[in-house]
């Protein structure tokens, strides 16, 4: 904000009239064509709303801003001015018809472009708060409105500081009532609509479930949580769950809630967004645990529920220490068979569809590849992994890779697996769930490496394959150190800085960059780059040290490789002194 404020609020800053007017216009317009003089905004706080009909996030934010505008405009001095990013006037008119505020006329593209530049608008929706003198008050209006709504008015730094201090005080003095009770509501609801006073929950361990019914991850977690909840109730544990739905579709909320056995805040309760800030929500689903005293016992036990189920209760620090010790012992005892054998499921599939017994893979180095056909990054990574697999197999037969699919149907699995030369778990195999839990698969593609004993070598094998290819095998810490030593030795005699005709603005500095595209030859580079951080410019060593490396042609390496004037030899992506 400081940079924009300095420019907008500086000594040569424009006033409100010069910001919003043009030589031929001293007014703004309403969606009915009415003209409103800019001078009528005197004494008001103004939000400049940069938005467009074609922008999905804008379409979702605009109704929220309409609600806040309607709440504030009749009570305090607040106005919004729409600065359109639409591509044609019909789109502008249709979108503006849903807005109760003012706008810069669509025909005045010069003013709209100037406002974009003055406030450095690089993305929309963007809501910039200014005062009636045109001075910047808050550049993050979208975030402020989403988080605090009308409570943030007049959106000044002083008001934001006051809100933050109040939030900190509320965390320090937290009780169950301060979390769940509002001036207009002292109850939560059951799925059949009955009201349960919050006072009846005091003294219990409470789980606050932040969820969105339409999210797949939330649906999957809810089914697991329901099992845990029912077991705790059967054991007469003093535990209750309160759903805090962040769903914006009431019908979806109802369909979800009517199948769940716990309590909830009413749909679209205004305290929901406040609670997401209070507990500093960063992911969904989240299950916050409050102790019997109403204080936060744990900020999110969703992963613990996934991993341990009811065993994680009562979610105390002592319980988590106990679980950590169990997990450590489990990892130390891990074998390939303990991972891949479950009852009669003691095999994986070969390329011909034949069953390959897990016992036949014991003693090999194994990669577990979590992937899916619907996932673009997976489809991009798989061809490289196929090459690496073949290269490793050529030098070590005691190596295998197993595909663990997250595909949505058998047909997709079959099509994707047809591109792979390795083994696989059958589609829909229940072992996938336990493997994903063991390796904490939060995203795909994910590649885990197992050593000959079946113990985990690394869960970061994808990064190692991306950076080093087959050279990273067998993916051990020792092998990674050997590679690091090799790259350090490689660059010892290279110059630390070079000048290059393709980037005369700055010197290029020898820098560790895991993966990049060379700006000279457009080929991928790894580990070492002659790099300009300010301009995000990269050159391979072979490209940086060739004959055009120096503007004057000094310290050159001949095109096509070979020895340079000062003894540099370039071979592939590597340049060394002869």
Automatic annotation (TrEMBL):
CDD domains attached to this UniProt entry: TryX_like_TryX_NRX
Spans through the membrane: none
Enzyme class: oxidoreductase
InterPro entries according to UniProt: C1-like_sf, DC1, Nucleoredoxin-like, Thioredoxin-like_fold, Thioredoxin-like_sf, Thioredoxin_CS, Thioredoxin_domain, TryX_NRX_thioredoxin_dom
Occurrences of domain Thioredoxin (ranges): 16-172, 325-485
Coiled coil regions, renumbered to chain: 222-249
Any Pfam family hit: C1_2
Lineage: superkingdom: Eukaryota
UniProt keyword annotations, A-Z: Coiled coil, NAD, Oxidoreductase, Repeat
Catalytic activity, as annotated: [protein]-dithiol + NADP(+) = [protein]-disulfide + NADPH + H(+); [protein]-dithiol + NAD(+) = [protein]-disulfide + NADH + H(+)
The protein's Enzyme Commission number: 1.8.1.8
Family that this chain belongs to: Belongs to the nucleoredoxin family.
Protein name: protein-disulfide reductase
Lineage: Eukaryota, Viridiplantae, Streptophyta, Embryophyta, Tracheophyta
């Amino acid at each position: 904000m400081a940079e924009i404020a300095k420019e907008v609020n500086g000594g040569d800053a424009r006033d409100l009239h010069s910001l919003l007017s043009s030589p031929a216009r001293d007014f703004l317009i309403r969606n009915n064509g009415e003209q409103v003089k800019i001078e009528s905004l005197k004494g008001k706080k103004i939000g400049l709303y940069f938005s467009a009909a074609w922008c999905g996030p804008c379409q979702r934010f605009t109704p929220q801003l309409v609600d806040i505008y309607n709440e504030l405009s009749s009570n305090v001095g607040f106005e919004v001015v729409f600065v359109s990013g639409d591509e044609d006037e019909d789109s502008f008119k249709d979108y503006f018809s849903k807005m109760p505020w003012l706008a810069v006329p669509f025909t005045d593209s010069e003013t709209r472009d100037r406002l974009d530049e003055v406030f450095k608008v690089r993305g929309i929706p963007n809501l910039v708060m200014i005062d009636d003198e045109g001075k910047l008050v808050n550049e993050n209006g979208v975030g402020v409105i989403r988080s605090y709504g009308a409570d943030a008015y007049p959106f000044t730094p002083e008001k934001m500081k006051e809100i933050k201090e109040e939030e900190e005080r509320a965390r320090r003095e937290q009780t169950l009532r301060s979390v769940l009770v509002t001036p207009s509501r002292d109850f939560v609801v059951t799925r059949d609509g009955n009201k349960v006073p919050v006072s009846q929950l005091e003294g219990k361990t409470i789980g606050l479930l932040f969820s969105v019914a339409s999210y797949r991850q939330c649906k999957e977690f809810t089914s697991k949580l329901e099992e845990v909840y029912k077991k705790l109730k059967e054991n007469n544990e003093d535990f209750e769950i309160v759903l805090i739905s962040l769903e914006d579709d009431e019908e979806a909320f109802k369909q979800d809630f009517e199948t769940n056995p716990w309590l909830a805040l009413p749909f679209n309760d205004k305290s929901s967004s406040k609670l997401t800030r209070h507990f500093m929500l960063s992911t969904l689903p989240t299950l916050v645990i409050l102790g019997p005293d109403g204080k936060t016992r744990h900020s999110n036990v969703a992963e613990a529920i996934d991993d341990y189920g009811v065993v994680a209760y009562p979610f105390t620090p002592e319980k988590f220490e106990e679980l950590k010790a169990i997990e450590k012992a489990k990892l130390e005892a891990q074998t390939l068979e303990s991972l891949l054998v479950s009852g009669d499921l003691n095999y994986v599939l070969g390329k011909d569809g034949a069953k390959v017994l897990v016992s036949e893979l014991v003693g090999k180095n194994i990669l577990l590849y979590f992937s899916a056909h619907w996932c673009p990054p997976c489809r991009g990574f798989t061809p490289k992994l196929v090459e690496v697999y073949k290269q490793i197999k050529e030098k070590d037969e005691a190596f295998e890779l197993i595909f663990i699919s997250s595909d949505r149907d058998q047909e997709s699995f079959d099509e994707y697996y047809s591109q792979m030369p390795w083994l696989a778990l059958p589609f829909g195999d229940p072992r996938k769930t336990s493997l994903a839990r063991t390796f904490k698969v939060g995203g795909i593609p994910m590649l885990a490496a197992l050593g000959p004993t079946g113990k985990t070598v690394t869960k970061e094998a994808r990064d190692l394959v991306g950076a080093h290819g087959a050279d990273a095998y067998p993916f051990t810490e020792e092998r990674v150190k050997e590679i690091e030593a090799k790259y350090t030795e490689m660059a010892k005699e290279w110059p630390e800085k070079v000048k290059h005709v393709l980037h005369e603005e700055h010197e290029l500095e020898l820098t560790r960059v895991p993966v990049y595209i060379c700006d000279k030859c457009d080929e991928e580079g790894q580990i070492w780059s002659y790099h300009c951080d300010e301009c995000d410019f990269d050159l391979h060593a072979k490209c940086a040290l060739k004959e055009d490396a120096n503007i004057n042609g000094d310290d050159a390496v001949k095109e096509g490789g070979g020895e340079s004037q000062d003894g540099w030899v370039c071979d592939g992506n590597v340049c060394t002194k002869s």
